[in-house]
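**User:**
Make up any protein.

**Assistant:**
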Amino acid sequence: MNKSPDAHRMEKIVSLCKRRGFIFQSSEIYGGLNGCWDYGPLGVELKRNLKNYWWRVMVHERDDVVGMDGSILMNRAVWKASGHEDTFTDPMVDCRSCKARLRADQLVEKKGINQCPNCGGKDLTAPRAFNLMFKTFVGATEDESSVTYLRPETAQSIFVQFKNVLEVSRKKLPFGVAQIGKAFRNEINPRNFTFRSREFEQMELEYFCRAEEGMRWLDYWKEERLKFYENIGIARDNLHALTVPDEERAFYSKGTYDIEYDFPFGRQELEGVAYRTDYDLSQHQKASGKSLEYFDEETKQRFIPHVVEPSAGVDRTVLALICEAYSEDEAPDEKGKMETRIVLRFHPRIAPIKCAVFPLLKNKEPLVAKAKEIVALLRPHMYVFYDEVGAIGRRYRRQDEIGTPFGVTVDQLRICRAFWFRASLNGSGAVSRILLEQSRSYGKHAIWRRCSRLQSCRQNLRASRAR
C-alpha cells in the first residue's frame, strides 16, 4: 500500500530527529521501550526553551500567578479522592487474530462491524476497563498498605497544596498556580512518535476564580493560549479551537476547549482548556476533612473557588514545533547541481542554537581569533555554536538543518585589520555584510537583531575596495 505524502513527511521528521540529536528511542541498544523517549543535545535545548518561555509568559510576566513543583509520588488517598483510582481508565480491546491490544476508539467500523485496524480481523474481545496509572510501592514491603501511583497528571498536587500556596502568596481571587512536571500513563497503545507516550511532561495552570466568573476566564485562557502558540512560531492556520460537546466532556467540567494542531498524522489535541468547577477542591476537602475554602475579606464569605485549567503537553508541543519548522527546498551543491535540502525554520526564541559562528578559513589565525572573540561576546547572552570544520557552504547547511536562525561568518576583506562578518536569516538566503566593530558591546546587541532589519553595507564595500 502506498503511503500518503504526510506519512512520508512524518517518517522524514522522525529520521531527522534521530540523525541530528533531537529525540532518541529510550533504551535503544536493548531494543527500546515502547512509549518512552530520550531527548538528545538539540532536543533538550528546544524543550528547555519552550518550558522557559511558557514559565515566563504564565508566571513571570503576570501578577496573578505563582509557581510550585509538586512531587511525583503522592499519598494514595489523593488518587482515591480525585477519582483516578476508580475511573482513570480506557476501554481496551484485544484482537484474537493478530494479538494486538487496542483502545476501543481505535477500531475501524465497516458496514456496522468493528474491525482491527492492523489486520482487519473481526474476532475481537468485548471492551474492558484498563486503569492507566502506574502502580508502585513505597517502603520496604510490597503490600496493600504501601501502594501508590506515579502521578498521571500534575494538577492534583496543586489542589492539595491550595491552602498552603494561598497563605504564603497572599493572593486574592482570581489567581493561578502554575507547574511544569513529569506525568505517567500506562497507555494501551502508544503511537505517533512522541505524541502519545507513557512518560511525558505537562505545563499546567490551575486558575482559581469565583463561580460566576468561570466561563469568562475559560474564554480568556483559550485566547491567551492560542496567542502563546503563535508567539513560538506555530501558524494560526494550523491551530484549531474545538468546543468539546457536552457528551464528551468530563462529568465535572462546565466547558472545555481542545486546542488542536494539524500534525502530519492528522489533527490532534495539543492542549486542553477546561473549566473544572469546584470539583477537585471539594473532593479533597471532603476526603481529607481539611478546609480548602477561600475567605473573602471584603464580603466576609467563605467558599470553595472554581478553577479553569489550561493544560499543555510539553512533548506534544515540541513535536508540533518540529513539524511546523520542517521544510524542504532546493539549492545548488558545491558542483552547481540542484539538490533537496532540509531546513528547520524555528522561531528564534525557541531555536536550540541561537547563533552559529564561523571563520571563513580555519588556517587563517586572525579570522579564527576574531570568530572566537565573537563567540565569547555572545555566549553569556545566548547559546552559540562555533564551527570551523569543512567548506563554508556545508557548515551553513548543517545549521539550516537544525534550525539555527542566525549565522556569523568572519571574513577578512581588507589587510588593515578591518574584519567583516556575514549574518544570514536561516533559510531565507538573504545575506548582509556588516562591519565588525571593535567595541565589546557589539555582539550582544547588533547580532541579535533579525537580518531582515540589518542595513545593507554595499556602499561600505565599494568604498573599501576603492581605497
